[in-house]
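ARCHIVE CARD
CATEGORY: sequence design from structure
SOURCE FIELD: tokenized fold
FIELD CONTENT:
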């Protein structure tokens, strides 16, 4: 058996082989190196079995063999260390990949949610723009008729009894003067419309009920205290039993109340008022319709 291939494996060759370990892979390189060492050991053993003496082998070959064994052990240790580090780094890389994949999933979900929210926001914007246009159209309609409503409202308030009108004075004073230019009215359309609605509510309460009020009226040059029975805005009846004065009234939005004396109504109106005030048992009292 020839030993030439093994005896010529010098330090430079081993360094090249060691580099190939790092360059071509740890497992393949270590296996290849192990095979070389085994072959060299077989060559040494064959020489020994052939009866060669240590002197013929040579001291230098023994030292080289010892160095090869030492470097083999160190290489195996280095390979094991690098493999361990590689396994740790490989697991670390796997963990990093999993985290990155999870982050990508979360980012995709966030993007989808953002796109959905953006779509909903666009829908809301379109809806709100439509509502704004409707409000603008409604405002233009209100602006064209509100001054007429305010003028008519002032007339209706003036047609109310003095006591009721005083209760509505705060709302009535908010109505702009009819001679004030539209661009100089401080109140907004919403405030003016709300004021009109408030007055109408109070007038509806009065119109839907029966009210007995005490009023002082000038009759025949004298201030006389009267009890007035208002049946909403449909009509009213007044009486002073001590003086035998009675009558009825009608209302007009332009001129207010118009009163008509009728002494024949003294007993009837007085009885109706007493029933309303629960001073006598309830009964039907017939009152003539105001003319």
């Amino acid at each position: 058996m020839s030993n030439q291939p093994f005896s010529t494996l010098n330090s430079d060759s081993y360094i090249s082989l060691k580099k190939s370990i790092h360059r071509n892979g740890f497992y393949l390189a270590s296996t290849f190196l192990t095979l070389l060492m085994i072959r060299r050991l077989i060559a040494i053993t064959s020489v020994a079995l052939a009866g060669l003496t240590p002197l013929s082998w040579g001291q230098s070959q023994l030292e080289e063999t010892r160095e090869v064994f030492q470097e083999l052990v160190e290489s195996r240790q280095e390979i094991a260390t690098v493999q361990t580090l590689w396994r740790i780094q490989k697991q670390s890389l796997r963990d990093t990949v999993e985290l990155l994949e999870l982050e990508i999933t979360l980012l995709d979900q966030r993007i989808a949610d953002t796109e959905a929210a953006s779509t909903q926001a666009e829908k809301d914007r379109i809806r709100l723009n439509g509502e704004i246009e409707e409000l603008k159209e409604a405002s233009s309609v209100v602006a064209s008729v509100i001054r007429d409503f305010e003028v008519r409202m002032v007339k209706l308030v003036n047609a109310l009894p003095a006591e009721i009108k005083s209760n509505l004075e705060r709302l009535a004073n908010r109505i702009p003067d009819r001679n004030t230019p539209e661009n100089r009215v401080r109140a907004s359309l919403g405030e003016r419309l709300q004021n009109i609605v408030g007055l109408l509510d109070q007038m509806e309460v009065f119109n839907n009920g029966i009210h007995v009020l005490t009023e002082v009226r000038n009759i025949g040059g004298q201030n006389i205290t009267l009890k007035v029975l208002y049946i909403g805005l449909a009509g009213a009846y007044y009486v002073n039993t001590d003086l035998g004065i009675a009558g009825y009234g009608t209302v007009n939005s332009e001129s207010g109340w118009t009163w008509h004396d009728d002494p024949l109504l003294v007993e009837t109106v007085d009885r109706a008022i007493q029933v309303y005030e629960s001073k006598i048992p309830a009964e039907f009292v017939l009152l003539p319709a105001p003319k």
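CARD ANNOTATION: Confidence is low (pLDDT under 50) at residues 1-11, 17-27, 47-56. Residues 97 and 103 are 10 Å apart (CA to CA).
SHELF: design records, drawer C
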